[in-house]
Specification:
The chain has helices spanning about 15-25, 90-110, 155-165, 170-185, 205-210, 210-215, 225-235, 250-285, and strands spanning about 10-15, 30-40, 55-60, 65-70, 75-85, 115-125, 130-135, 240, 240-245. By secondary structure, it is α+β, with helices and mostly antiparallel strands. Helix 3 packs antiparallel against helix 4 (about 170-185) and helix 3 (about 155-165) packs antiparallel against helix 8. InterPro entries: MauJ.
Protein backbone atom coordinates (compact mmCIF):
# COMPACT_ATOMS: atom_id res chain seq x y z
CA UNK A 1 0.00 0.00 0.00
CA UNK A 2 1.37 3.40 -1.00
CA UNK A 3 1.78 5.87 1.86
CA UNK A 4 2.84 9.55 1.88
CA UNK A 5 6.22 9.57 3.58
CA UNK A 6 6.37 13.38 3.59
CA UNK A 7 3.67 14.86 5.83
CA UNK A 8 5.15 18.31 6.40
CA UNK A 9 2.00 19.94 5.04
CA UNK A 10 -0.02 19.14 8.16
CA UNK A 11 0.05 19.63 11.92
CA UNK A 12 -1.54 16.94 14.08
CA UNK A 13 -3.13 18.28 17.26
CA UNK A 14 -2.02 16.56 20.48
CA UNK A 15 -4.20 18.60 22.83
CA UNK A 16 -7.94 18.53 23.51
CA UNK A 17 -10.13 20.04 20.80
CA UNK A 18 -11.32 22.81 23.13
CA UNK A 19 -7.77 23.91 23.94
CA UNK A 20 -6.76 23.79 20.28
CA UNK A 21 -9.85 25.83 19.38
CA UNK A 22 -8.93 28.54 21.89
CA UNK A 23 -5.45 28.76 20.41
CA UNK A 24 -6.81 28.91 16.85
CA UNK A 25 -9.19 31.73 17.77
CA UNK A 26 -6.52 33.82 19.46
CA UNK A 27 -4.81 36.07 16.90
CA UNK A 28 -2.63 37.96 19.37
CA UNK A 29 1.14 37.66 19.33
CA UNK A 30 2.28 35.35 22.12
CA UNK A 31 5.08 32.92 23.04
CA UNK A 32 5.48 29.65 21.13
CA UNK A 33 7.99 26.83 21.47
CA UNK A 34 8.94 24.93 18.31
CA UNK A 35 11.14 21.86 18.51
CA UNK A 36 12.76 20.42 15.39
CA UNK A 37 13.87 16.81 15.21
CA UNK A 38 16.96 16.46 13.04
CA UNK A 39 18.27 13.57 10.96
CA UNK A 40 21.57 12.30 9.63
CA UNK A 41 20.78 11.38 5.98
CA UNK A 42 23.57 8.78 5.88
CA UNK A 43 22.87 6.77 9.03
CA UNK A 44 19.16 7.73 9.07
CA UNK A 45 19.53 8.32 12.82
CA UNK A 46 17.66 11.23 14.36
CA UNK A 47 20.84 13.04 15.30
CA UNK A 48 23.51 15.23 13.73
CA UNK A 49 27.28 14.84 13.86
CA UNK A 50 27.46 18.03 15.91
CA UNK A 51 28.14 18.83 19.54
CA UNK A 52 25.73 21.41 21.00
CA UNK A 53 26.99 24.83 22.16
CA UNK A 54 27.11 25.67 25.84
CA UNK A 55 24.68 28.58 25.49
CA UNK A 56 21.59 29.25 23.29
CA UNK A 57 22.15 31.15 20.06
CA UNK A 58 19.84 34.12 19.43
CA UNK A 59 19.14 34.98 15.82
CA UNK A 60 17.96 38.52 15.15
CA UNK A 61 15.80 39.24 12.13
CA UNK A 62 12.28 40.58 11.94
CA UNK A 63 11.99 39.33 15.51
CA UNK A 64 14.12 37.57 18.07
CA UNK A 65 14.26 33.78 17.91
CA UNK A 66 16.15 32.01 20.67
CA UNK A 67 17.63 28.80 19.29
CA UNK A 68 19.04 26.09 21.54
CA UNK A 69 20.57 22.80 20.39
CA UNK A 70 20.06 19.73 22.58
CA UNK A 71 22.01 16.49 22.62
CA UNK A 72 20.98 12.86 22.99
CA UNK A 73 22.67 10.31 25.25
CA UNK A 74 25.50 10.00 22.69
CA UNK A 75 26.24 13.72 22.99
CA UNK A 76 25.10 14.54 19.46
CA UNK A 77 22.53 17.20 18.56
CA UNK A 78 19.11 15.52 18.26
CA UNK A 79 16.68 18.42 18.66
CA UNK A 80 16.73 22.16 18.03
CA UNK A 81 14.34 24.26 20.11
CA UNK A 82 13.12 27.70 19.08
CA UNK A 83 11.43 30.19 21.40
CA UNK A 84 9.64 33.02 19.63
CA UNK A 85 6.47 35.12 19.51
CA UNK A 86 3.86 34.48 16.81
CA UNK A 87 0.13 34.78 16.16
CA UNK A 88 -0.50 31.10 15.37
CA UNK A 89 1.13 27.70 15.44
CA UNK A 90 1.56 27.80 11.67
CA UNK A 91 3.26 31.19 11.77
CA UNK A 92 5.55 30.01 14.57
CA UNK A 93 6.58 26.92 12.59
CA UNK A 94 7.12 28.93 9.41
CA UNK A 95 9.36 31.50 11.11
CA UNK A 96 11.29 28.94 13.14
CA UNK A 97 11.70 26.59 10.17
CA UNK A 98 13.21 29.38 8.08
CA UNK A 99 15.67 30.25 10.85
CA UNK A 100 16.70 26.65 11.59
CA UNK A 101 16.93 25.54 7.95
CA UNK A 102 19.20 28.49 7.13
CA UNK A 103 21.33 27.70 10.15
CA UNK A 104 21.68 24.06 9.03
CA UNK A 105 22.59 25.22 5.53
CA UNK A 106 25.47 27.23 7.04
CA UNK A 107 26.55 24.23 9.13
CA UNK A 108 26.51 22.05 6.00
CA UNK A 109 28.60 24.60 4.10
CA UNK A 110 31.08 24.78 7.00
CA UNK A 111 31.44 21.08 7.71
CA UNK A 112 30.51 19.23 4.54
CA UNK A 113 28.29 16.93 6.63
CA UNK A 114 24.72 15.94 5.73
CA UNK A 115 21.95 17.39 7.88
CA UNK A 116 18.18 17.47 7.56
CA UNK A 117 15.04 18.36 9.50
CA UNK A 118 13.02 15.22 10.24
CA UNK A 119 9.92 16.74 11.86
CA UNK A 120 8.76 19.14 14.51
CA UNK A 121 6.51 19.84 17.46
CA UNK A 122 4.99 23.16 18.45
CA UNK A 123 3.39 24.44 21.65
CA UNK A 124 1.30 27.53 22.35
CA UNK A 125 2.71 28.53 25.71
CA UNK A 126 -0.33 30.65 26.63
CA UNK A 127 -3.11 28.16 25.85
CA UNK A 128 -0.96 25.03 26.39
CA UNK A 129 -2.04 23.71 22.99
CA UNK A 130 0.33 21.31 21.25
CA UNK A 131 0.80 19.93 17.74
CA UNK A 132 3.35 17.75 16.00
CA UNK A 133 4.46 16.85 12.51
CA UNK A 134 6.61 13.73 12.39
CA UNK A 135 7.23 11.10 9.71
CA UNK A 136 4.65 8.34 9.43
CA UNK A 137 6.05 5.00 10.58
CA UNK A 138 4.04 2.26 8.83
CA UNK A 139 3.70 -1.30 9.99
CA UNK A 140 5.60 -4.06 8.20
CA UNK A 141 3.88 -5.73 5.25
CA UNK A 142 3.65 -9.38 4.35
CA UNK A 143 4.64 -10.00 0.73
CA UNK A 144 4.93 -12.98 -1.56
CA UNK A 145 8.67 -13.59 -1.50
CA UNK A 146 8.40 -15.88 -4.52
CA UNK A 147 7.65 -12.89 -6.75
CA UNK A 148 10.00 -12.74 -9.76
CA UNK A 149 12.34 -9.79 -10.27
CA UNK A 150 11.14 -6.85 -12.36
CA UNK A 151 11.57 -7.31 -16.11
CA UNK A 152 14.70 -5.83 -17.72
CA UNK A 153 12.82 -3.31 -19.87
CA UNK A 154 10.77 -2.13 -16.90
CA UNK A 155 13.69 -1.90 -14.47
CA UNK A 156 14.71 1.70 -15.41
CA UNK A 157 11.17 2.91 -14.65
CA UNK A 158 11.04 0.90 -11.43
CA UNK A 159 14.27 2.70 -10.47
CA UNK A 160 12.53 6.03 -11.06
CA UNK A 161 9.81 4.83 -8.71
CA UNK A 162 12.50 3.80 -6.24
CA UNK A 163 14.07 7.26 -6.41
CA UNK A 164 10.70 8.88 -5.83
CA UNK A 165 10.00 6.63 -2.85
CA UNK A 166 13.46 6.97 -1.32
CA UNK A 167 13.89 10.72 -1.83
CA UNK A 168 13.98 12.76 1.39
CA UNK A 169 12.92 15.94 -0.42
CA UNK A 170 9.84 16.80 -2.53
CA UNK A 171 11.93 18.25 -5.36
CA UNK A 172 13.64 14.94 -6.15
CA UNK A 173 10.44 13.00 -5.63
CA UNK A 174 8.50 15.21 -8.03
CA UNK A 175 11.16 15.03 -10.76
CA UNK A 176 11.50 11.23 -10.55
CA UNK A 177 7.75 10.60 -10.54
CA UNK A 178 7.20 13.15 -13.31
CA UNK A 179 9.70 11.32 -15.54
CA UNK A 180 7.79 8.06 -15.15
CA UNK A 181 4.42 9.72 -15.78
CA UNK A 182 5.73 11.44 -18.91
CA UNK A 183 7.10 8.16 -20.26
CA UNK A 184 3.72 6.53 -19.72
CA UNK A 185 1.89 9.37 -21.47
CA UNK A 186 4.31 9.23 -24.42
CA UNK A 187 3.61 5.52 -24.86
CA UNK A 188 6.98 4.08 -23.95
CA UNK A 189 6.86 0.38 -24.97
CA UNK A 190 7.81 -0.75 -21.47
CA UNK A 191 4.67 0.96 -20.11
CA UNK A 192 2.20 0.21 -22.89
CA UNK A 193 -0.01 -1.93 -20.62
CA UNK A 194 -0.15 0.49 -17.67
CA UNK A 195 -3.53 1.96 -18.57
CA UNK A 196 -2.30 5.48 -19.21
CA UNK A 197 -5.30 6.26 -21.44
CA UNK A 198 -7.78 5.25 -18.73
CA UNK A 199 -5.92 6.89 -15.84
CA UNK A 200 -7.83 9.49 -13.82
CA UNK A 201 -6.95 11.34 -10.62
CA UNK A 202 -9.50 10.20 -8.07
CA UNK A 203 -10.59 11.93 -4.89
CA UNK A 204 -9.23 8.94 -2.99
CA UNK A 205 -5.78 9.59 -4.51
CA UNK A 206 -5.93 13.23 -3.46
CA UNK A 207 -6.82 12.22 0.09
CA UNK A 208 -3.97 9.69 0.27
CA UNK A 209 -1.51 12.29 -1.04
CA UNK A 210 -2.70 14.90 1.46
CA UNK A 211 -3.54 17.13 -1.50
CA UNK A 212 -7.34 17.29 -1.40
CA UNK A 213 -7.61 20.83 -0.02
CA UNK A 214 -4.81 22.35 -2.09
CA UNK A 215 -5.25 20.37 -5.32
CA UNK A 216 -8.91 19.37 -5.27
CA UNK A 217 -9.37 20.90 -8.73
CA UNK A 218 -7.29 18.04 -10.16
CA UNK A 219 -9.95 15.44 -9.32
CA UNK A 220 -10.99 13.68 -12.51
CA UNK A 221 -7.91 14.84 -14.44
CA UNK A 222 -6.47 12.44 -16.98
CA UNK A 223 -2.74 11.80 -17.23
CA UNK A 224 -2.12 14.60 -19.70
CA UNK A 225 -3.96 17.12 -17.54
CA UNK A 226 -2.07 15.98 -14.44
CA UNK A 227 1.27 16.43 -16.21
CA UNK A 228 0.23 19.88 -17.42
CA UNK A 229 -0.52 20.85 -13.81
CA UNK A 230 2.79 19.44 -12.60
CA UNK A 231 4.97 20.80 -15.39
CA UNK A 232 5.43 24.42 -14.14
CA UNK A 233 6.49 23.12 -10.72
CA UNK A 234 8.81 20.57 -12.33
CA UNK A 235 10.37 23.00 -14.78
CA UNK A 236 11.16 25.65 -12.15
CA UNK A 237 13.43 23.09 -10.48
CA UNK A 238 15.65 23.06 -13.60
CA UNK A 239 17.67 25.79 -15.28
CA UNK A 240 19.58 25.27 -18.54
CA UNK A 241 19.57 21.53 -18.04
CA UNK A 242 20.85 21.65 -14.45
CA UNK A 243 19.22 21.78 -11.04
CA UNK A 244 18.06 25.28 -10.18
CA UNK A 245 18.82 26.94 -6.86
CA UNK A 246 15.27 27.52 -5.62
CA UNK A 247 14.96 29.61 -2.41
CA UNK A 248 11.63 28.22 -1.16
CA UNK A 249 10.20 28.92 2.27
CA UNK A 250 8.34 26.21 4.18
CA UNK A 251 4.92 27.23 2.82
CA UNK A 252 6.19 26.90 -0.76
CA UNK A 253 7.83 23.56 0.01
CA UNK A 254 4.55 22.33 1.50
CA UNK A 255 2.69 23.09 -1.73
CA UNK A 256 5.41 21.33 -3.71
CA UNK A 257 5.33 18.25 -1.49
CA UNK A 258 1.56 17.88 -1.96
CA UNK A 259 2.10 17.77 -5.71
CA UNK A 260 5.11 15.48 -5.28
CA UNK A 261 3.00 13.10 -3.19
CA UNK A 262 0.31 13.07 -5.88
CA UNK A 263 2.82 12.50 -8.69
CA UNK A 264 4.52 9.77 -6.66
CA UNK A 265 1.20 8.01 -6.04
CA UNK A 266 0.14 8.28 -9.69
CA UNK A 267 3.48 6.86 -10.83
CA UNK A 268 3.11 3.94 -8.45
CA UNK A 269 -0.42 3.21 -9.71
CA UNK A 270 0.75 3.08 -13.33
CA UNK A 271 3.85 1.00 -12.60
CA UNK A 272 1.81 -1.43 -10.52
CA UNK A 273 -0.83 -1.66 -13.28
CA UNK A 274 1.88 -2.47 -15.85
CA UNK A 275 3.26 -5.29 -13.71
CA UNK A 276 -0.21 -6.71 -13.04
CA UNK A 277 -1.04 -6.62 -16.75
CA UNK A 278 2.16 -8.52 -17.55
CA UNK A 279 1.36 -11.13 -14.92
CA UNK A 280 -2.13 -11.62 -16.37
CA UNK A 281 -0.67 -12.05 -19.86
CA UNK A 282 1.71 -14.69 -18.56
CA UNK A 283 -1.11 -16.58 -16.86
CA UNK A 284 -3.16 -16.61 -20.08
CA UNK A 285 -0.36 -18.06 -22.19
CA UNK A 286 -0.92 -21.74 -23.08
CA UNK A 287 1.36 -24.25 -21.41
CA UNK A 288 3.45 -26.27 -23.85
CA UNK A 289 3.25 -30.02 -23.34
Amino acid sequence: MWIPYDVRASLKAESDREIVGLSRADRSKRPFLVGFYVRNPVTQQWELDLLPPDQPVTRRGLQDIEISLHANDAGKVSEILCRLDACSAEEAVDLAYDAVSRLLLRYIAETGRGMAIAGWRVADMVHNARWRCTPFRPSALRIDHTLPPVDDDLAPFARLMQRARNAPDPETRLMAAYALLRAALRGNPALRRCGADEFRVSQEMLVHAGALDACGNLAGSDLRQLLEALRPHHDRLLEDGALAAVPDRLSEQQQLLRLANLADLAAHRLLHAEIRARMNETMRQPVEV
